[in-house]
Design brief:
Length: about 200
Amino acid sequence: MMDGLKKHNFFCTKEKIMNTLTQQKIHTIVCGDSHTVALTSNNTVKCWGDNLYNQCDPVHLTFTNAIQVVCGHSHSVVLFSNGTVQCWGNNTWEQCDPVHLTFTNIIDIACGYYHSVVLLTNGTVRCWGASQWKQCDPVHKTFTNVIGVACGWHHSVALLMDGTVRCWGNNSFNQCDHIHLALTNVIQVVCCNNYSVAVSQW
């Protein structure tokens, strides 16, 4: 067991985690495959778990003014109050590519297994990372009036202002089935590994 721990370079022991989080109010907790990220009420970020791909790299300790965090399989993305993002962790598929540093006016973020998606204030979407299932297909650049984004393992979903949705990427389990084009009055979208969920207001 200790050999496994050394191999994966776990960022924190249980004792360190408890000491770090003691007396801190947690606003949000999200998880990757083997790591956890917490956003505190004072807008800082805490990570613990497997650090094999630097997904819990101490760089996160320098973050302030964070307002949202999301995790992929082994990478993380944080959104700051000034509308910029920072990514860290596994970059095998360029899911933490420096291209993210060029984006501003971001209002929502989401992560898939190995890809990242952001929503800009002008209602457009930008994706980067793995695209073997076309989860970062350029089709997303044609979408306008987007108000929310979500990601499954290998697919992405956009909620539009008119209450409709658009899906792109892996459709092996019909998670991007054309049925989504018939949905109306949608107010929220969420994704899990191989399925999508839309909440409608009737």
